[in-house]
Specification:
257 residues; Rossmann fold; nine-stranded mixed sheet; two-stranded antiparallel ribbon; 28% helix
């Protein structure tokens, strides 16, 4: 079983002070640390679990600049067999649809039974790449997958819906699945595996090798900004009874009761 995993190198911003850069379309990244996108680590682990069960090869692909090769090597150390970096520096600003078109151009000539991707990227939170890529490749897909298994040439899938609902699907392969965090427990790369991965070749693909000069987009990033603070939080001090009384007074003042 041959599996492709799309991964992304992203800045870690959950506990960092984020500032908009001078262009107004990106953030200042000089002092940020970078790592594999969280849900992508679960997608990779799911691929490794499938490889351990059924055999085959795993190919990891990332559209990124040279630093993304570090992320690809960690994926190799965790169990991937091949790695491809598409040179992001060859392109101007890309939106989710253009990114999906570029990935499709590379993947369409590869052998695969399954494509895994994370369900969301923590830097832009678009959640578009996986499903858009599947549509461009004209293969079935399922998003927000929380349980996954394969029986012959079909996938048995549970996916998360709104309101706590779970959808159970039977999907023919080849297909694409975007993986939700928590589906498995991602492994750590051993030091020996990291050293071995450092010696492996990463295939580099530039724009000139894609045999397609234009990637169509209908969206433009106009501005990136921190939302203005419109309301302040009011903390209620005192005992539970005192706080409850104050809260009831606020509700009455606002006309909520």
């Amino acid at each position: 079983m041959d599996i492709i995993v799309c991964i992304k190198r992203v800045p870690q911003t959950s506990e960092a002070e984020v500032k908009i850069d001078s262009t107004g379309k990106d953030i200042v990244k000089d002092r940020l640390t970078f790592d594999t996108n969280e849900s992508d680590t679960y997608a990779l682990e799911q691929a490794v679990l499938m490889k351990e069960k059924f055999g085959g090869e795993i190919t990891v692909i990332s559209l990124g600049e040279e630093d993304a090769e570090d992320t690809l090597r960690i994926a190799l150390a965790k169990g991937a067999d091949n790695a491809i970096r598409i040179k992001a520096e060859d392109f101007d600003e890309l939106d989710a649809f253009q990114t999906s078109q570029i990935l499709k151009t590379v993947i369409k000539d590869l052998s695969y039974d399954i494509i895994f991707a994370g369900c969301i990227a923590t830097d832009d939170a678009y959640s578009q790449i996986g499903v858009t890529l599947a549509e461009l490749l004209e293969i079935p897909h399922a998003a927000l997958v929380i349980d996954f298994d394969v029986n012959e040439n079909r996938a048995d899938v549970h996916r998360e819906l709104e309101g706590g609902l779970i959808e159970h699907l039977d999907i023919s392969l080849p297909a694409l699945f975007t993986i939700q965090t928590g589906i498995n427990e991602p492994r750590y790369a051993s030091l020996i595996a990291i050293r071995r991965a450092a010696k492996k070749e990463i295939q580099i693909i530039g724009k000139d090798e894609l045999q397609q000069s234009e990637f169509i987009s209908n969206s433009v990033l106009e501005e990136l900004y921190v939302p203005p603070i419109s309301k302040q939080v009011e903390l209620l001090d005192g005992t539970a009874a005192e706080s409850s009384s104050k809260l009831a007074g606020i509700f009455k003042e606002k006309g909520l009761v």
